[in-house]
Amino acid sequence: MTHVLDDLEARGLIAHSTDRDALRAELSAGPITYYVGFDPTAPSLHIGNLLQLLTARRLQMAGHRPLLLVGGSTGLIGDPKEAGERVMNTKETVAEWVDRIASQVSRFVDVDGPNGATIVNNLDWTAGLSTIDFLRDIGKHFPVNRMLARDVVSSRLESGISYTEFSYVLLQSMDFLELHRRHGCVLQTGGSDQWGNITAGVELIRRADGAKAHALATPLITKADGTKFGKTESGTVWLDPALMSPYAFYQSWIQAEDSKVIEYLRQFTFLELDEIAHIAAEHVEKPGLRAAQRRLAAEMTTIVHGEAETAAAELASQALFGRAELQDLPEPTLAAALREAGAVDLAAADDPTIVDALVATGLADSRSAARRAVGEGGAYLNNERVTDPDLPLTADRLLYNTWAVIRKGKRSVSGVSIG
């Protein structure tokens, strides 16, 4: 059986670690307790957080016990960013986001069984902590010169950094110490951008308790140009369907670059590496089929939103281009797909026609171009070719009495909502 560290390495999921041999020995000696943390700086987690959750799941599948920390206190402070000071959210907002994120993280690991995950909140051990005790018990272990040398701090010294953000590393390090004392936690995982905070926790455990702990960081997930993966033209790729529809989530993976799609399959999915190698060979041979992207999108949408939403997203992708029946799409999926395709709103009182829709959606540059597209047989309403440029978009011609799928040629598709 493959050791979990070897599997993580083969999937490209280890950017940094403390003593690898010592960590291997600890993992091999028996089940360990480990943790990964999430600060509630938004109402939902995103793709970057997802990688941490799936890494936690891989360790759990190897028999180890996860602690998933939601930062009710660290979320009030905010990890310093190189770009500048974070905006502090109200305590009420952070508390609400804690509950939402705690619910989210529990979906990606097993919370039952002998190594079931435990959700913890660092507000539990910081809310009643006095400033004097914090400075005496935690602050004394942090040399200021070492804190100043941290990249994110040194980059902010000229523009300015508040004592609040400067002290964030103490709070996160204390989390590791508290979880070590309360739960026997000996490993923290996280993204490589958290490496300084994670190793500071390892050092605090050594200084405060004379004990040994471990750290492991995954690489930042990037696009081919080195920018962060998980950002689209419309914003962050969220895990909450209220912030990003399952269809839009599916499309974010469908659009993965050819040069990165196999890497994402290794890092984000639970497919066996042999199967991924087979997909990679097919992808090299016939990249135009985008079979690797479709498999990636299906696997990831199933992990995050379930099989039913994946099936609906796949059907929507086919239906918009005439390869499946539009009438089979649930209205929320149809609406999400059309909004993702750039759908616009038209007023029923204006008696819009197919030409109006082609122009409004940008599929035609002008009314004359729209009429020409209809005359040449290249305009479609709900996948039916239109021959009359004055065809009115009345309720009986709309899907759910509201939506119209507008297509020009084989590949250009958008939609309108009429109300």
From TrEMBL:
Positions of the Tyrosine--tRNA ligase SYY-like C-terminal domain: 349-411
GO molecular function: tyrosine-tRNA ligase activity
InterPro entries: aa-tRNA-synth_I_CS, aa-tRNA-synth_Ic, Rossmann-like_a/b/a_fold, S4_RNA-bd_sf, SYY-like_C, Tyr-tRNA-ligase, Tyr-tRNA-ligase_bac-type, Tyr-tRNA-ligase_bac_1
Major subcellular site: cytoplasm
Segments carrying motif 'KMSKS' region: 228-232
Keyword list, A-Z: Aminoacyl-tRNA synthetase, ATP-binding, Cytoplasm, Ligase, Nucleotide-binding, Protein biosynthesis, RNA-binding
Classification via NCBIfam families: tyrS
Protein name, as recorded: Tyrosine--tRNA ligase
Species of the source: Aeromicrobium wangtongii
